Amino acid sequence: MKKLLTIFFLSTAWGFAFSQGTVRYDIEPGIVRIQEDYVNNWRKVGEINGYRIQIAAYSGVNSKSQAEYARNSFNNLFPYTRAYLIYNEPYFKVRVGNYRSRLQAHKDLETIKLTYPSAYIVPDKISYR
Hints:
Layout: H1 2-17, H2 29-44, E1 47-58, H3 63-77, E2 83-88, E3 91-99, H4 102-112, E4 120-127
Antiparallel strand pairs: 1-3, 1-4, 2-3
């Protein structure tokens, strides 16, 4: 009898331990709506505060063509970092990257300074995507 109870107990415990059950999540509709609102609101936001590295600024005659040349040469040297041509009267500026923190920008700044020694970090609106 003792053996029979032991076998029964072990087989029941074995069945509970290794059974393939399903997990059911009960999520309140309000939480789902909040998550959807959060995602939809971030889709509307195109830019956030961040940092870029400014590699050049030009003003005067042919400043736009000089800035475009600087941007194109940067794109050839660093194809994985995006370069932007920005016009703030009277300057055409070439800024690169989309960095969320100054520390991230500083990491790339050391490499970029080898080619563009006057490069420096500036706060700017960046694309978060």
